[in-house]
Design goal:
With 263 residues, the chain is of the alpha/beta class. An 8-stranded mixed beta sheet has the order 5-4-3-2-1-10-11-12. The longest helix has 15 residues. The protein is globular, with a radius of gyration of 18 Å. 40% of the residues are buried.
């Protein structure tokens, strides 16, 4: 694992060394939200987006000619509430829903009703397990156990059994103190690649910043595209890393000040 980096100059140098032929191509930027832009909160509803972060993101958007998108496990509606009044190009539910830069919404995977029985089982599981929080995202279901870390193993077994009953259309994501049942139809990588086929992202070199195992496929996608993966914290490995969301904001400020970074 590399030492944490927060300098866009260092990150640009590393990216250029990996792909010298792309050194002069402008960046586009994809950002996870929880644990990346925002510190992890005790519950999903407890997070807040400060005005200073909204303003910083606007500066980065201007510097990159609008080629910035959020790529999150949260639903699009929740992202809009968090970042209001701004509405971002965004992928929600790990790529199951996506709003492109023109404002069109694309959805894939089974409808929410396919999860009705699993929804009841997950709600009952949370109700009988103190400290476990059930989050119904519509097309996916999450069980958070940050307040009950000692329940991780039995909770994993129970959720795995529910996933098995759902069949191969669904899989189990294991994130930072969360288990999530979601359709296997798409991933954050699929969402990033879809953005990169459209303006204003097309023809640019991607950076994806994330903090969890749910971001690994996105890391792989940007690396294959000649871009750069940036991990936040030490849960996952990427080409480079920064230590915390505070360092992500320093990175974004550098990026906004430098516009399209080149060595």
């Amino acid at each position: 694992m590399e030492e944490p980096l927060s300098s866009i100059a260092d990150i640009s140098r590393i990216a250029s060394a990996a792909r010298p032929d792309t050194a002069q191509i402008p960046w586009c930027l994809f950002l996870d939200v929880d644990g990346t832009l925002l510190e992890i909160a005790p519950t999903p509803d407890a997070v807040r987006v400060e005005d200073s972060l909204r303003q910083l993101l606007q500066r980065v958007r201007q510097a990159l000619d609008d080629a910035v998108a959020l790529v999150s496990g949260r639903a699009l509606a929740t992202l809009d509430q968090l970042f209001a009044p701004q509405r971002w190009p965004a992928a929600g539910l790990h790529g199951l829903e996506r709003r492109d830069a023109a404002g069109r919404v694309h959805a894939c995977g089974p409808e929410a009703g396919r999860l009705d029985e699993a929804r009841r089982e997950c709600a009952a599981l949370a109700a009988r397990t103190p400290g476990v929080l059930f989050e119904d995202k519509g097309r996916s279901l999450a069980l958070h156990y940050r307040a009950a870390p000692d329940r991780e193993a039995p909770l994993r077994r129970a959720v795995h059994a529910i996933a098995m009953d759902l069949g191969p259309e669904y899989h189990l994501l294991e994130g930072n103190c969360v288990f999530e049942l979601k359709p296997a139809a798409t991933t954050k990588a699929d969402a990033i690649l879809a953005f990169m086929s459209e303006p204003p992202f097309a023809g640019r070199r991607p950076i994806f910043v994330g903090d969890d195992v749910t971001d690994l496929d996105g890391f792989a996608a940007v690396e294959r595209s000649g871009g750069l993966s940036v991990a936040v914290g030490d849960r996952v490995q990427a080409q480079v890393r920064v230590a915390s969301p505070r360092d992500v904001r320093a990175f974004l400020a550098d990026l906004a000040d430098r516009r399209s970074p080149t060595p």
